[in-house]
Design goal:
The protein is an alpha+beta fold. The chain has 4 domains: about 90 residues, Beta Barrel (conserved putative lor/sdh protein from methanococcus maripaludis s2 fold); about 100 residues, Elongation Factor Tu (Ef-tu), domain 3 (Beta Barrel), CATH 2.40.30; about 60 residues, Beta Barrel (OB fold (Dihydrolipoamide Acetyltransferase, E2P)), CATH 2.40.50.100; about 80 residues, Helix hairpin bin (Helix Hairpins, Orthogonal Bundle), CATH 1.10.287. About 25% of the residues lie in helices and about 35% in strands. The chain contains 4 helices and 25 strands. Strands 1, 3, 19, 20, 21, 22, 23 and 25 form an 8-stranded mixed beta sheet that branches. A 7-stranded antiparallel beta sheet has the order 15-14-18-4-13-17-16, with helices on one face. Helix 2 runs antiparallel to helix 3. It is elongated. The two termini are about 70 Å apart.
């Protein structure tokens, strides 16, 4: 009897165990929205901090000493080459010029007299009527007189130059700054800055480009006629778009080994003098990628430890699975981002629900949620 009871208990236990499923219940799939990766033409700009520079800029200094007797320009105005800017008291230099001119006349008179004496003694010498020594002395005196004339003429040129330097003119067309001297100030040679003048048409814009981009800009410099009109534009202070586009002028001779950058200079028309030397602006360089590029919503990208990932939907035997793949980002355009590496056309990516996923998560599109707000990225 006890044997039968034991058999019944054993059979009951086996029956109970046979009703239990040893596999764990599958986790619920996360509802997501998917998007198919496509390539498309993209218009965007690369932005660089830039500074406006004058193509020519000089500090004006006095080349003679004296008191300022005239200022003939309005500060901050446009002046033309040769336009009179300052006058320095010219009385001493005019007097020196007049004296030098008189000395030239005296020297020329002495030369004329020495020439006559030499001619006379030459004639007498031909008839043996004068000693040879007298002729030699006359010829030496004539040569000395000629040298004195040459020296007097050089002194006259110096006096004329100093007299000219008493009037200071603009060396080129440009904008003149504040005057550093006033009427009556004493200025000395090389020590006193009068004002600064710089060119303003055209205006240069300098920026630093990465050395990896150097071949691209060198090609553009060699084929200037093929540049699109809007290739280089600038955003002025106050977020205003400058209405004229620029051209490459100069690429610096060397790359900075510490930063890996090279300075590039553009020139922009400046007919209204809107650009001033030293302004900070943003240079926009139109993208030059000839073909379509992969662009996805920025919210589909997950950042982890400075690296970027996207979840791709993959089919498995039982359900869809989210597989995490590493990508490389390019330019951000509004709420979208260009992907330069890691995705291909036709990939299905998760664009909503990435915050709840990990590599290998089960996902479903059966109960799609409403699209998340654009612009946010998964963390």
């Amino acid at each position: 009897m006890s044997r039968q009871v034991s058999i019944l208990i054993l059979c009951s236990s086996l029956a109970i165990l046979s009703c239990q499923d040893p596999r764990p219940a599958p986790a619920s799939a996360t509802p997501v929205n998917l998007a198919v990766v496509k390539s498309q033409p993209v218009l965007y700009y690369d932005d660089y901090p830039a500074t406006t520079q004058a193509l020519s800029q000089v500090d004006l200094h006095a080349q003679v000493t004296g008191y300022i007797t005239g200022i003939y320009f309005n500060e901050g105005s446009h002046v033309h080459k040769g336009e009179k800017l300052y006058a320095i008291d010219e009385r001493l230099y005019q007097a020196a010029y007049d004296q030098a001119a008189a000395n030239v006349q005296v020297a020329e008179g002495n030369q004329k007299q020495a020439q006559q004496d030499a001619d006379r003694y030459e004639y007498l010498n031909q008839h043996n009527a004068v000693a040879r020594q007298v002729l030699d002395h006359a010829e030496i005196a004539l040569q000395n007189a000629k040298n004195e004339v040459a020296a007097a003429r050089q002194a006259l040129k110096t006096a004329a130059t100093n007299l000219t330097y008493s009037i200071i003119t603009a060396p080129f067309d440009g904008t003149v700054g504040f005057s550093q001297v006033k009427l009556g100030n004493l200025v000395t040679v090389g020590a006193t800055t009068l004002t600064t003048i710089s060119t303003d048409e055209p205006m240069a814009v300098d920026f630093l480009a990465n050395e990896a981009q150097l071949p691209q800009y060198e090609d553009l410099q060699r084929t200037k006629q093929k540049e699109p009109d809007s290739l280089f534009t600038i955003i002025m202070p106050g977020k205003k778009l400058y209405p004229y586009s620029g051209k490459i002028s100069v690429i610096d001779r060397a790359v900075d080994p510490q930063t890996g950058t090279i300075r590039i200079r553009l020139v922009f028309p400046n007919p209204r003098n809107d650009l001033r030397a030293g302004m900070s602006c943003v240079l926009r360089v139109h993208n030059l990628e000839p073909g379509p590029q992969i662009t996805i919503p920025g919210k589909a990208v997950v950042e982890q430890m400075g690296e970027y990932f996207v979840f791709i939907a993959r089919d498995s035997a039982a359900h869809l699975m989210a597989m995490q793949v590493k990508v490389e980002e390019g330019k951000t355009i509004g709420s979208n981002v260009i992907i330069t590496k890691g995705l291909k056309e036709g990939d299905r990516i998760v664009v909503d629900g990435v915050q709840a996923l990990h590599d290998g998560s089960a996902i479903t599109t059966a109960n799609k949620r409403g699209p998340a707000a654009a612009g946010g990225r998964g963390k």
